[in-house]
Amino acid sequence: MTIAMRIGALVGAASLALALVGFIALDTADAGRFNEKVSGNFIDTAIDMNGDGMNANAWSGAAKGNGSPSYEGLVEVALDGSAQCGENELGGSVVAYSIVRRYANGHLMFSNLVDGELCFNQGTGLASLTINAAVTGGTGQYAGATGTYTANYTIQGLVLAPGQGIAHGAFYGTTSG
């Protein structure tokens, strides 16, 4: 698997975590500050949102905090050197991010990318991901919900298949807004 594919997989995982936190916090009936801990997993897809040869990642997971929802989403990064990263790290920007959060009562909350960046350490295989996202509505009690949140994730690729564009791994992090 190329470095770009590995980074894409790691970014996908981080995005998932970020999306999860954002959905938990913004309830039109009880808007305000929130803070959550998230964890989940990711896997490469065959979807390339911006045509750069790096596939998006599908992710899923759960949050502990406001509402403790489960979530699903899609995230893609571009290794364009835009992020200011440490020595021996590759930087990139998040080019696509969308997430759906599902609460125990069946209500959904949606969010999309505002901006984000990734730093990938080739030596350790770890990546850090920061995503700024906007809540764009939902169903039930989240219909018409708006707001923003920031998610910070640490991502670890677990299985990378060189040359095949397949990766999966795990992420954990926090979200606040």
Description:
Strand 7 and strand 8 form a beta hairpin. This protein has 1 helix and 8 strands; from the N terminus they run αββββββββ. The radius of gyration is 15 Å and the shape is globular. An 8-stranded antiparallel β-barrel has the order 1-2-3-4-5-6-7-8. The protein is mostly beta strands and 177 residues long. The protein has one domain. The longest helix is centred in the N-terminal third of the chain and has 23 residues.
What distinguishing features does this structure have?
about 180 residues, mainly beta, 8-stranded antiparallel barrel, 8 strands
Quaternary status of these chains?
Answer: single chain
- Beta-strand segment tally: 8
Structural class: mainly beta
Overall outline: globular
Q: What's the number of helices?
A: 1
Structure, briefly:
By secondary structure, the protein is mainly β. 13% of the residues lie in helices and 53% in strands. It has one helix and eight strands.
What is the topological layout?
Layout: H1 3-25, E1 35-44, E2 57-64, E3 70-78, E4 89-102, E5 108-121, E6 126-138, E7 147-161, E8 166-176
Antiparallel strand pairs: 1-2, 1-8, 2-3, 3-4, 4-5, 5-6, 6-7, 7-8
